[in-house]
Automatic annotation (TrEMBL):
GO terms for biological process: protein complex oligomerization; protein folding. Involved in the biogenesis of TorA. Acts on TorA before the insertion of the molybdenum cofactor and, as a result, probably favors a conformation of the apoenzyme that is competent for acquiring the cofactor. The keyword Repeat does not apply. This is Chaperone protein TorD. Gene3D superfamilies: 1.20.120.1820, HscB, C-terminal domain. Belongs to the TorD/DmsD family. TorD subfamily. The keyword Cytoplasm applies. Keywords: Chaperone, Cytoplasm. PANTHER family: CHAPERONE PROTEIN TORD (PTHR34227:SF11), CHAPERONE PROTEIN YCDY (PTHR34227).
Length: 216
């Protein structure tokens, strides 16, 4: 059981890390940390999983290429704004509604579904992050919290229900749109840091869905 709890904690940490990466521009401190030993060790661990080896290497290469960019933090901030804070025509907006909503506009059904799920599981959106509920960072943060809820549940039947809820969420609320989001990033991200980030996210979600399916 302790191994199961520890593994779940690792899963939650990865979802939270990706959430923070896609929530805001990286600071100078963040960029320095991405070049540090702790990130190298973390990515090395991820890359030992065969399904993640290729996307991890691509992400590492994107980090290494940052060293060749003058004013790397400012350039990355510009990339972030151009991709995620622009318009559907010029950017790759990080909202599920853009990809799987009926209208193609913000706050469509995926955002309403997310609000309902947050209410159902008692998981609140961070107050300082004033975005629609179907923003990728909100969805990833929710998934991390859902994982921890399963860890804290003592009743085996309820814990299993929470694991199945995670599987449904990954399939129905993440993998139903983030591959298209990744393609949109690839088409518009000249430098490629955020494309590599989202490709790694897609690969991790696919791997996590396979893990959760095996847990049923």
């Amino acid at each position: 059981m302790q191994e199961f709890i520890a593994f779940n904690e690792q899963r939650a940490e990865i979802y939270w890390w990706m959430s923070s990466l896609l929530a805001r521009e990286l600071t100078n401190e963040d960029v320095t940390e991405y070049h540090g030993d702790e990130m190298f060790t973390f990515l090395s661990g991820l890359g030992m999983t065969p399904e993640l080896k290729e996307p991890v290497e691509a992400f590492r290469n994107a980090i290494n290429t940052l060293k060749t960019r003058e004013d790397a933090q400012l350039e990355l901030a510009a990339d972030f704004c151009g991709l995620f804070l622009s318009t559907p025509k010029s950017g790759a907006l990080p909202y599920a509604s853009i990809y799987v909503g009926e209208s193609g506009l913000l706050n469509d059904k995926p955002a309403q579904d997310m609000n309902a799920l947050m209410e159902e599981y008692g998981i609140a959106q961070r107050k300082e992050f004033n975005e629609p509920a179907d923003h990728i960072a909100v969805e990833l943060d929710f998934m991390g919290n859902l994982i921890i809820q399963a860890n804290q549940e003592l009743d085996e039947e309820k814990r299993e229900a929470l694991m199945q809820a995670q599987l449904a969420f990954v399939n129905d609320m993440l993998l139903n749109w983030i591959p298209a989001f990744a393609q949109s990033c690839k088409a518009r991200d000249d430098f490629g840091f955020y494309t590599a980030s989202v490709n790694l996210l897609v690969a991790f979600c696919q791997l996590d869905a396979a893990f959760l399916l095996g847990e049923e």
